[in-house]
Structure formats: structure tokens, C-alpha cells
């Protein structure tokens, strides 16, 4: 299973990042929720993005923060050395995608929830 960092994790059950945490967990993927909201999601504590927590073994980063808020976190997200970054709808960012791709990171403009439901995560 793919260890997944959820960037923009939240405790708000009305947000897609919350649904993704729940669905990834149900599908057996280890999640690492990272965001600016304190609390837990899918039984895991949300790590504070502002502290740039060190996390090893990330396969996938799934983005849930808009492109206007991403530049501050480019270096941190790339430091996680993921194999791929999923840019969910509304998070697409050509500048960041090109940076990541230049480091050999696979880029997908897709919806994590749909990918899980159709079995191509």
C-alpha cells in the first residue's frame, strides 16, 4: 500500500481532504495528514505544516491546498521525496508541477477520491 501525505489535511468533514483521509484509510493506505488545522482525521493526528515535519517513506503526496498557497511549501513538499504528487481539482499548479517533474516526481492531475473508487490509485 502507498504511504500518502495529505497536504491540507483538516478535521472538517465537509472538506475533500477529510474524505480522502477516510477513504485512503479504508483502502488500507497509511496516511500522514499534514495541515494547519489541529486535531485528528481518520484516527491520525494532523501534523503542523508550518513546522515542516520530517516524514520518511512517502510514496504519494495528495494536494488539497490551492495554487496560491503552495509556493511557501514547495521546498518542504519536494523534501518528502515522493514518487508522485496528485494535484486534485483546484490545486493544479504548472510551476510546481514542472519543478517536481524536474526532480523525477510523477505528476497526476486527478482526483484521489475517484482514483480510489475506480481502483487506479
Automatic annotation (TrEMBL):
Domain CoA-binding: 2-116
SUPFAM superfamilies: NAD(P)-binding Rossmann-fold domains (SSF51735)
Entries under Gene3D superfamilies matching the protein: NAD(P)-binding Rossmann-like Domain
Identification of the protein by name: CoA-binding domain-containing protein
Organism: Fulvivirga imtechensis AK7
Pfam families, A to Z: CoA_binding_2 (PF13380)
